[in-house]
Amino acid sequence: MKTILNVIWLVLSGFWLFLGYALAGMIMCILIVTIPWGIASFRIGVYALWPFGRTTVDRRDAGAASCLGNGIWLLLAGWWLAIGHIVTGVALCVTIIGIPFGIANFKLIPVSLMPLGREIVPTDQPFAAR
User: Fold this and answer.
1) Which parts of 31-93 fold into alpha helices (H)?
2) Is the dihedral of CA 46, 52, 53, 57 positive or negative?
3) Which helix (DSSP H) or strand (DSSP E) does residue 96 occupy?
4) Whole-prediction pTM
5) Average pLDDT, stretch 5-25?
6) 119: part of which helix (H) or strand (E)?
7) Would you say 28 and 35 are in contact if contact means Cβ atoms under 8 Å apart?
8) What is the spatial distance between Cα 7 and Cα 130, in angstroms, rounded to a whole number?
């Protein structure tokens, strides 16, 4: 079932969201100092491309540096990506078939705003990373 949902997601919104994350990641990698944010952008872009069957969990070993990094990410690219998720989620919720995909878009907003200090794990093992 998750494969069918992922394929429909890919067609409706996943590919475009992935392109947004890839663009943010490339810009971050060009600016040498922001390479860690670029890597996080690519990681979350792959998650946004194929989200069903996976979830995010907080990393216990993430410290103050990830908090500071999330603040910088929020200013540089996070709010643009969150707006993309909001617009796509609202557009998908207009149709009955798109409602689950719209809700999935809304669930991706927190990780698009603050990606550092989170880990993407399979949904059948969400507590294995802890």
Assistant:
1) 35-49, 64-73, 79-92
2) positive
3) none
4) 0.84
5) 91
6) strand 118-122
7) yes
8) 30
